[in-house]
Design a protein that fits this description.
The complex is a heterodimer of chains A (343) and B (174). Chain A is α+β, with helices and mostly antiparallel strands. Chain A is built from six helices and 16 strands. In chain A, β1 and β2 form a beta hairpin. In chain A, α5 packs across α6. Chain B is mostly helical and 174 residues long. The longest helix of chain B has 23 residues. The chains are: A alpha+beta (343), B mainly alpha (174).
């Protein structure tokens, strides 16, 4: 960059009036809240002092009251000890009449009954997208694609070099739901899975490592903003991985799909990285990056049988409302979405 | 810690410590020291003084609320910039994006000093502006910008290169 341009960026700017005014409003709010807090603290201190004074005044009277309470407690303790000796059995918790004791033999036969019954029912499983812990999972049904939020960095990242080689990193927020499932294996048809996890807190039961290197972006880890500290994570690349059904996600695990060395023209790169006004061009460029990407999900049932489902991932144009994304900030704004579709 | 942050920290460490203890005077002074930096970043994302003012106001209030829980005082500036960027993107998501020169808010008569800066910024694509500002004006390194914007390092490099190209193109046309 030329010196002239650098100077432009180093220029001392004037702060517009509106910025100063709004900042002053914020400072005023802070001072007022601080004053309220100080007032409350003063009130509490005064109340506590008053309370202590009242207590000191009534000390003599309360001493008498305490003696009476001690006598009553002692009498109650004697009664409890007597009733325990009569009806209680050492080492067992007392049961009330309304809660019957459970016979272990009965419980075992009941479980067998349920197991026998499930063998005759066709095994089924559902796949769903769940992007955040507090979000409801959106089920993936055949013919009904589900879109992930169009959030750069939390759902997907695309990057590249000056020679036109680009890469993508796309979140795979898929969860499996069903009965009698032991584990779930995911495999990918191109590129690799990128698994980012907090050190020492892996949820991956098994993985088939990717043979090679991938230079792509990453989703996950990052800075813990409240403490200003970098999260200590490990990143692994694989073409397949297995999760125990009981532990399919964690707050410190990010599973992504990555691929590099994809060529984009300057026009296509600007459509993705630039202003993004031409949604159609942006969609075409993003589809070019992930074209043909699919994930196979193999569900391993507890009886040793397996079932699979295929997920195709594509880029589409649309609005959050049209694609059924709830609580979107801009439900009617046309954007590019990545959709997951089950076969 | 980046060089700019070291200088800022030397000058303001005692203010940060006092502000962490909920000293409103120290906090106000600290924010005033950061006002121009905040404005540059907010404007680069929002391209609108009123929206930038809203983002800065929200950032001041958030920082006041969260500052006592900031573990490492040394990262105050990066932490605050991150909060500002989040507020800017929140505002931008809620409003129609203003990007091109034709949509750019006309500066008021007294605001003549910022005109050239604003025009130059408006000549650069939205995605590249904030990267250029953070890199050239705020002095962040590429890795730090990637962390701030939650983008991969290679994405930031690409955006910086493309931003430079657009900047050069803007000056060629002038």
């Amino acid at each position: 960059m030329k010196e002239k341009e650098r100077i432009l960026f180093d220029e001392n700017l004037e702060i517009p009036d509106i910025v100063s005014k709004k900042a002053e409003t914020a400072f005023l709010q802070i001072r007022q809240s601080q004053e309220r807090k100080n007032d409350m603290e003063r009130d509490m201190e005064r109340d506590m002092e008053n309370e202590m004074t009242r207590e000191l005044r009534s000390t003599k009277k309360r001493h008498t009251g305490v003696k009476a309470a001690v006598a009553a407690a002692a009498a109650f303790a004697v009664l409890v000890a007597v009733s325990g000796a009569v009806g209680g059995v050492p080492g067992q918790h007392a049961h009330t009449d309304s809660v019957p004791d459970i016979d272990l033999a009965d419980a075992s036969s009941a479980t067998d009954g349920v197991a026998a019954e499930t063998e005759t029912i066709e095994k089924k499983f559902a796949l769903a997208l769940k992007e955040a812990k507090d979000e409801q999972a959106r089920e993936l049904k055949t013919g009904k694609p589900v879109a992930i939020k169009p959030d750069w960095a939390s759902s997907w990242v695309i990057c590249g070099d000056e020679e036109g080689n680009y890469s993508y990193c796309l979140a795979l927020p898929v969860v499996c739901e069903g009965e009698d499932i032991d584990s779930v294996t995911y495999s990918i048809n191109k590129g690799a899975f990128e698994i980012v996890e907090a050190k020492g807190a892996s949820i991956v039961a098994d993985m088939k490592k990717y043979d090679g290197t991938i230079n792509a972006g990453s989703i996950g880890g990052g800075m813990d903003e409240t403490v200003g500290e970098q999260m200590d994570v490990t990143t692994a690349y694989c073409t397949a991985f297995t999760l125990d059904y009981a532990c399919q996600s964690s707050e410190t695990t990010w599973i992504n799909m990555v691929k590099d060395q994809i060529f984009l023209s300057d026009d296509e790169a600007d459509a993705v990285f630039g202003d993004g006004k031409d949604v159609e061009k942006r969609c075409a460029a993003m589809q070019k990056l992930i074209d043909g990407l699919s994930v196979t999900c193999t569900v391993h049932f507890t009886d040793g049988t397996e079932q699979t489902a295929q997920l195709a991932i594509n880029a589409v144009m649309g609005t959050a409302k049209e694609l059924g994304i709830e609580n979107a900030v801009d439900p009617d704004v046309e954007d590019v979405f990545f959709i997951f579709e089950r076969d | 810690m980046r060089t700019g942050e070291t200088v800022f920290m030397k000058e303001s460490e005692h203010l940060i410590e006092q502000a962490k203890g909920q000293n409103a005077d120290a906090f106000t002074e600290l924010m005033q020291l950061r006002m121009k930096d905040m404005y540059r970043v907010a404007f680069a994302i929002l391209m609108n003084d009123e929206d930038a003012a809203d983002a800065i106001q929200e950032t001041i209030l958030t920082c006041w609320e969260k500052l006592p829980s900031l573990k490492h005082t040394a990262y105050f500036q990066t932490w605050q910039t991150r909060i500002l960027i989040n507020h800017c993107y929140d505002i931008r998501r809620k409003r129609a994006p203003l990007t091109g020169l034709e949509e750019w808010e006309e500066p008021s008569a007294w605001d003549h000093y910022n005109v050239e800066w604003k025009e130059a910024l408006a000549g650069v694509g939205e995605a590249y502006r904030v990267v250029l500002i953070l890199y050239y004006s705020e002095g962040y390194r590429i890795r730090e910008i990637a962390e701030l914007l939650k983008r991969p390092v290679s994405t930031v490099k690409t955006q910086l290169a493309r931003g430079r190209e657009q900047m050069a193109h803007y000056y060629t046309e002038q």
